[in-house]
Amino acid sequence: MAFERYGKRRPGGGAPLRSRRGRIAQNWWSQRFVDTLERSGDRGRLQRGRTYARAGQVVELRVRPGAAGARVQGSRPRPYLVEVTVRAWTASEVEAVVATVVENPLLLAPLFGGDVPPGLVDLLTGIGVDLLPADPEVTYDCSCPDASEPCKHAAAVVYALAEQLDAEPATALTLRGVALPDLLRRITDAASGPSAPVEDLALHVAAFHRLAGDLPDLGVRDRVPGRTVADGLDDLVLGPGAAGIADSLRPWYVAVRPGDQEGTRGQPPGRQSRA
Predict the structure, then answer these.
(1) Where residue 200 falls among pLDDT bands split at 50, 70, 90?
(2) Do 125 and 29 contact (CB within 8 A), yes or no?
(3) Which element (helix H / strand E) includes 207?
(4) Which of 11, 57, 63, 160 has the most crowded Cβ, counting Cβ within 10 A?
């Protein structure tokens, strides 16, 4: 959307929030995210920010690892550029998250479904890793002349973020610097354990093909002249009451046995040619 020229100020342009009155945040994670804003923000600016967000004046909201950016249509024709930055997890914090999920596999199903289960948040809090940021971990930057943090435009972006958190809880992970697909890949790799390097695998395959020596004796007995498969049949194979069946089958096996005279192979008894 082009913002460079307006005949007059437009009241919106973005998607209005679903919440038309009362609290914007509906779920516990988005409520905690908004609480961080409302503890430090000016009441008047927060009220104006909610009005902007509900009117659809937050345009092009985009979340990326560690931050969210948007354009907010204010009182001037040109929208203001806003960026809300959240402290990203350190490498050790991400490793702690991966280890926590590996040790608690029941958390995997919700994560693969794009949800962030409350149990994960509680477990992480227990080891000193917070999913939802505290006030000192959030910074606001806006191109408007108001030096307050947050200004009404930044507040509008936070309220829009809160509604996105309701719809997509994994947004909280992205704000912490970890995209959900990447986190799931790391969890899967950690759960499956270390794999042998490709070089080692190639060496093992080469060693296998260099094995020398005769094949082991498989215990297959030599064929006994005059003996057929029927001679190996007994009551254990044929079942109770099968006495005499092996004798009846023997002539048929003799008839199809390789090595018989030409012209008789494959012919059942009684149909062999006579000289």
Answers:
(1) low
(2) no
(3) helix 198-209
(4) 160
With 0-12 / 13-18 / 19 or more C-beta atoms within 10 angstroms meaning exposed / middle / buried, residue 146 is middle
- The two tokens of residue 92 are 């050790």
Query: What's residue 29's pLDDT?
Result: 75
Query: In this structure, what token pair is assigned to residue 106?
Result: 């029941």
Q: What is the mean pLDDT of the chain?
A: 77
CA 71 → CA 79, 153, 275, distances in Å? 6, 9, 104
- For residue 11, give both structure tokens: 């009241």
Cis peptide before 117 (omega within 30 of 0): no
* pTM value surpassing 0.70: no
- 18-35 mean pLDDT: 70
Q: Locate 193 and state its tokens.
A: 């354990």
In this structure, the answer to whether residues 113 and 237 fall within a common structural domain is no
How far apart are the C-alpha atoms of 178 and 169, rounded to whole Å?
Answer: 13
Closest of 134, 160, 173, 132 to residue 59, by C-alpha:
160
Same domain, 42 and 137: yes
Domain residue limits at 247: 226-270
**Tokens at 252, concatenated:** 């048929």
Instruction: Return the pLDDT at 214.
Output: 62
Residue, of 129 and 166, whose pLDDT is higher: 129
pLDDT of residue 268: 54
